[in-house]
Amino acid sequence: MSLLSTVALFLLLPLAAGALVRIIRPEAQWLSLLLSFSGAFLLAVVFLHMLPELYAEEGAHIGLWVLGGFLLQVVLEFFSQGIEHGHIHHHGGKALPLVTLLSLCLHSFAEGMPFADPRVAGDLPFLFGVLLHKMPMAIALATVLLRSGTGSASSWAMLVTFALAAPLGIGAGVLIGAGEGHGFLQHMLGLAIGMLLHISTTIIFESAPDHRFNAKRFVAVAVGVVLALFSVHHH
Question: Is this prediction's pTM over 0.90?
Fold first, then answer.
């Protein structure tokens, strides 16, 4: 997939999610199932495809970047309050803090940088997994803004800001990667994978609160894993 197409997808998907929330106001159960599916798909693609290839190409030192991304996401979630994995119930009636929006944008910016590498942008299973993860993330953000009573103009300004973060990350990756070489983008890929590992594992763990079996969420997770297996095998 071309760089321009990748940028367009990262830009338009959050805006489409915002419009969807305004029009149909999806129920929390559907968001939960979408999160379970996207988390499982992304986790399977990372473990079966991205991590093995990244370690094979870069060696053991790339693990420091993966671990760094995992820990960075731990820090970011102190400020984002878990919107990345669908936490919307903590925000009812309260205005969204700017530090929360900044945290979400930093996540998306870092997530976008590796896609400056044409090989990553052309890796359809990984690209689809990241975009699939951004959809419920944007829905959760739009839902929080709607429930908090934020005005329409302010809500769209925040959604546009969030939508621009990943394309700006891609642009930064192109500019910095041109000077620093391919190794920089591989390090950013390791960082992004670490962040995505934290989010996807958190989603899976939270799909069974109090260790209770939920058949619908289990099916969503199973379907996500099976589709990831299929997409990686045919990539």
Answer: no
**Cβ atoms of 51 and 197 closer than 8 Å:** no
Spatial separation of the C-alpha atoms in residues 58 and 184, rounded to whole Å:
11
How many CA atoms, within 13 angstroms, populate the side-chain half-sphere of residue 107? 34
Q: Which two tokens stand for residue 127?
A: 């690209």
| Residues of the chain scoring pLDDT < 70 | 1, 26-28, 85-95, 179-182, 206-213, 235
Residue-number span of the structural domain to which 10 is assigned: 3-233
Q: Among candidates 61, 68, 207, 208, which has minimal Cα distance to 136?
A: 207
- The total of structural domains in the chain comes to 1
Helices marked H in 25-123 — which ranges? 28-45, 51-58, 62-80, 98-112, 118-121
Give the tens place of pLDDT for each residue, 61-89. Answer: 999 999 999 999 999 988 877 777 666 65
Report in angstroms the alpha-carbon separations of 25 from 11, 146, 162, 203: 21, 9, 20, 21
Residue closest to 235 by CA, chosen among 120, 115, 132, 113: 120
